[in-house]
Here is the input.
Amino acid sequence: MKIAVCIKRTPDTESRFAIAADGKSLDAAGLKYDISDFDGYALEVALRLNEQQGPGETVVVSAGPEGTQEILRKALSIGADRAIHLGCDTLPYDGMAVAAALSAELRGQEYDLILFGRNATDSGNATVGLMTAALLDLPCVSAVSWLEIKEGRGTAHRELEGVTETVGFGLPAVLTIDEGIARPRLPSLKGIMAAKKKPLETRPAALGEARLTVVAMELPPERTGGRIVGEGPDAVPELVRLLREEAKVL
Amino acid sequence: MSGLAVVEAREGALRKVAFEVVTAAKQASGMTGGGEVHALLIGGSNISASAPELGRYGADVVHIVEHPDLDRYSPEVYAATAAALIQAGSYRAALFCASAQGRDLAPRVAATLNVSLAADVVAFEFEGDAILARHPVYIGKAIATLRLTGTPALLSLRPSAITPVETPAAARVNRIEPAIAPRDARITVTDLSGRAAANLDLGEAPVVVSGGRGLKAAEHFRLVEELAAAFGNAAVGATRAVTDDGWRPATDQIGQTGRLVSPELYIAVGISGAVQHLAGMRTSRVIVAINRDRDAPIMKLADYAIVGDLFDIVPRLTEAVKQARADS
Here is the structure.
């Protein structure tokens, strides 16, 4: 199958976060970037499908500034066949603006599947995959936790707050991938060497108009926690009293 | 301003998030000098019986699509129908809940209408022709203020971010047809499985009791379940380490890659508090931690913590909670 995997470059959430001088972004100093968590699962799904189902092509696509090429190169070292970088100075926050660029790139390219992560680690919006599918007028299943493709049709599971839905759909289709579906592999030394020879194309991102912008960013208020009620089971009566009288949750 | 609340029902009953979204639409109307609050309710046979409940929270008009094949969420039918209604009604804003269903639905509607969507919003206000919305980013480690322009403006609201407020309104029913025939949908739900409907969902439960590796073995989760049962309104959650080990189903995972919860009371049992877990529960109103290690990250976050062996503490707490509830 010809499979596109759309990935995003996001800061590692283990980093210590500070707000930049502009008051509306993160201070880039000390931030490490990587492929967004769920996008890694999407890539793994694509690689396994093509390994299991015979000859195919896995194409990774990412929009963003120059540093985006690093995560595309990493995806190539993990096993993708080629990469497309849609360049822009800064990636807009508006999912519609990004979906416009991705759908322009993907349209007419005869992909059997277009995969996204369920949501990006940075914004947590979970919008671009579904929007891209709608702009391409393709069926879309979001938050897929299990997948089977057979004879041009797919079956997927998605988790709906305690209920598992089994969904059927025809190809081509767009899927957003939940975690747990397949543990992502790491790049091998051989893969890293091979990635240097794999094609990475760059062209400008045909972004849509950004009508949703970040105007301010702040760190959340510190919780005033850390109150040790006591040690061992003898502290239980005092805890229950506090839950009742102070917190009023019991 | 007239606003539309796109509400959610499951198995024929409105979910709590439905009242949150209607309340938000009522607030939006109030911020912009009044105007009717409309709701869109899609469901199977007899779903129209739920319309008066939406009126209790301020819906002046309830648009109802009642169709035997729409008892379950059908993404394409719901999206086409919501988009058609939003366009026909010239609404200033349309509000969705950022539940699993709403997170699937709202982006489809936005792209169909070619408008932008502020997703998973915890608060909003109007600023001239724009809407300012607050949304946690970087797994809750920062909070962004977003500016959304264009009409209609689409917002999805994080569950539990808004407290439902009763403001009775007429809830006049307007029956409409689905914009595409359910049988024409390209995505079909063929099966549903999972917990009994009677169990509380993690996202809606007022109390969540979660267990981590400190429980040492799957069978010890019984302690967590018993504590949850003592509250009578609690759901059981788990850390990723625990779901990865198969002690609990993956759907119970709370954290960056699992469920985000924001209950009145969160009790962390044997959980050290990895940043990925904290991302899923840090906005809980009251946090209690029970842990052997007084330096564990969860103990710094907790409003109340007990240091010690959970195998001694949790059974005692279960009894005390039972007693406290019996007394009240």
Notes: Chain B has two domains: 3-184, 207-327.
